[in-house]
Amino acid sequence: MERGAKEKNHQLYKPYTNGIIAKDPTSLEEEIKEIRRSGSNKTLDNTPEFELSDIFYFCRKGMETIMDDEVTKRFSAEELESWNLLSRTNYNFQYISLRLTVLWGLGVLIRYCFLLPLRIALAFTGISLLVVGTTVVGYLPNGRFKEFMSKHVHLMCYRICVRALTAIITYHDRENRPRNGGICVANHTSPIDVIILASDGYYAMVGQVHGGLMGVIQRAMVKACPHVWFERSEVKDRHLVSLKKRLVSGHFIVSCILGTCINNTSVMMFKKGSFEIGATVYPVAIKYDPQFGDAFWNSSKYGMVTYLLRMMTSWAIVCSVWYLPPMTREADEDAVQFANRVKSAIARQGGLVDLLWDGGLKREKVKDTFKEEQQKLYSKMIVGNHEDRSRS
Amino acid sequence: MGSRSSHAAVIPNVDSIRRETGFSQASLVRLHHRFRALDRNKKGYLSRMDLQQIGALAVNPLGDRIIESFFPNGSQRVDFPGFVRVLAHFRPVEDEDTDQDPKKPEPLNSRRNKLHYAFQLYDLDRDGKISRHEMLQVLRLMVGVQVTEEQLENIADRTVQEADEDGDGAVSFLEFTKSLEKMDVEQKMSIRILK
Most buried of the four, A19, A253, A386, B14, by CB within 10 Å? Predict the structure, then answer.
């Protein structure tokens, strides 16, 4: 199974084109011209004018977004082209054949009765070792030995956890791995991202405080290594200050936990705080192949433990990690532009769709500036630029 | 075996919806999934707020008009059948639709009904006519602040004049249809749902 997954992983990650509806990526101008052209037999010159049929464009575009829009889609799981025998990824179930159902039943048996206990045992080992190990290391006096032990405890435990999930990870460009004094920024799909990255390098992490089991782990980890955990609504300034101190002392930081959890097929805007610091940014792109198990976590639907169980009862989590060359903020760009640049680099590498929308859109309304742009484009078509105002 | 229920069973009255809208069962399941995704608080119906939360719709200049079309007769909620009924206007026209039994009601995605949907977007007070004033208001929605009042009035006047045949200063649905008779409405007002 592992070999098969590795082979599949080498296929190109084509941009996610599946949706409910077929869309043509044409511009406002082209489409309205098309509509006008099909409605009249007079030759279309470029004189700006209004036609009753123009409304069709906005009408259809609007309806398309009601049926299927990028953001709401990003917040629900991907759909697979062929079924992978996991009922949770099958939205359009119709009873197909007895044979398929039998296969599915067998799959359930294997996954729940054979794989799951194995994985739970491993996970249990990994987590307890992590908690115990980091607590013990915490008692050591600060110094190089502590660093050394902390690093190895972290790495070992994360590697065990990776095995517990049967995560099959392909690393690309490992020469670009983050170095001391830099910030590692990645697109964020689920807490599993952390495990995947942390099993390949020793990071001090920045992230949100969680309750429950996660909280216990977080509190233990922070004894051995100076991670930063904060509340989502807290003002980040003082954390930025401590981040800066951290950088000077030579740790590097994973800041991928700063965004809201989103579906793996796109990259949301990063919180600009991490980009204001002025350190070198090492972008990392993580892309999951949904073929063997869907790693998406819908935080409003499932709790952490349910989510982990879902992960452990899938066939495997297959993903690719690309380490991109380091980037630094240029003199003439501000934090937001820099953030966008990093985001695009990550999206391009992972074949993910680059979205303009902020992850905060899930909780807020959108600005009017985008609407104005559409209105500007359309106005040009019906009244032209200011120079052509001689007619009418 | 077959212990899981088909998702279509979750949709109430799925057969009558299917007959009314012409959507296939698979399409209805997907649209129901979509309906549930939009219905954030799991109320079982959609309010204007739910639709306004769609970012890409909020930046559509006619977004509000489109949202209005889901709430006819002053209602404040739209349930799944109502939701699908509006979307059915955009179903592509297939061959089976054209040789309909004349006794059956016209399918929602007929040319006439598609045109009627577009007509409704202009007809703000739903009186069956697009007055010059209404044309002006809709135009204003589409251009925002980019065009002066004078220019817009000229455009509205000209458009109403060109389409108006009986000289009542407003465009009725018949006149609207006539002015768009050469338009390939079926293609322009259709959205194809993927299998």
Answer: A253
What pLDDT shows up at residue A376? 83
Q: Which residues of chain A make contact with B171, given a CB cutoff of 8 A?
A: 52
Asked whether A314 and A84 are in contact (CB, 8 A), the reply is no
A&B contacts, CB < 8 Å: 184
At residue A54, the 3 state secondary structure works out as helix
Q: Do domains B12-89 and B107-184 have the same CATH topology?
A: yes
> Among the residues of A183-264, which ranges form H helices?
192-198, 212-224, 237-248
Q: How far is A3 from chain B (nearest CA, A)?
A: 31
Which residues of chain B are within 8 Å of residue A383 when distances are taken between CB atoms? 143, 146-147, 151, 155
pTM of the model: 0.54
Please report the sign of the dihedral spanned by the C-alpha atoms of residue A158, residue A162, residue A163, residue A169.
negative
CATH number listed for the domain at residues B107-184: 1.10.238.10
pLDDT digits 0-9 by tens, B86-136: 999 988 887 665 555 667 778 888 888 999 999 998 988 888 888 889 998
Q: Tell me the C-alpha to C-alpha distance, in Å, between residue A170 and each of A15, A16, A115, A385, B38.
A: 19, 20, 22, 53, 36
Residue A327 per-residue DSSP state:
B
A65 CA to chain B: closest CA distance, Å?
Answer: 6
Looking at chain A from residue 4 to 23, which residues have their Cβ under 8 Å from any Cβ of chain B? 18-22
User: Most B CBs within 10 Å: which of A63, A79, A85, A363, as the mutation test of the B interface?
Assistant: A63
Nearest C-alpha in A relative to B61: A371
A156 touches chain B (CB under 8 A): no
In a domain, A329, yes or no: yes
Give the CATH H-level superfamily of domain B12-89. Answer: EF-hand (1.10.238.10)
Which residue of B lies nearest to A49 if distances are taken between CA atoms? B155
Predicted confidence (pLDDT) at residue A385 exceeds the cutoff of 60: no
Which residues, other chains included, contact B28 with Cβ-Cβ below 8 Å and sequence gap of 6+? B8, B11, B14, B17, B18, B21, B84
Q: How far apart are CA A380 and CA A51, in angstroms?
A: 13
Of B2, B30, B33, the CB nearest to A101: B2
Identify the residue among B4, B7, B188, B192 best suited for mutation to test binding to A, counting A beta carbons within 10 A and taking the highest: B188
- Cα Rg for chain B, rounded, in angstroms? 19
Complex confidence, ipTM = 0.86
Pairing of strands A280-289, A317-323: antiparallel
pLDDT > 50? residue A350: yes
Q: Maximum Cα–Cα distance for chain B, whole Å?
A: 70
Would you tell me the crossing angle of helices B25-38 and B14-21 to the nearest 10 degrees? Answer: 110
Residue A23, Ramachandran bin (φ over 0: left; ψ between -120 and 50: alpha; else beta): beta
Question: How many structural domains does chain A have?
Answer: 1
Residue A270 lies in a domain: yes
* Structural domain spans, chain B: 12-89, 107-184
Domain residue limits at A184: 165-357
Q: Does the residue A306 lie in any domain?
A: yes
Residue A274's pLDDT is what?
A: 57
Tell me whether residue A332 is in a domain: yes
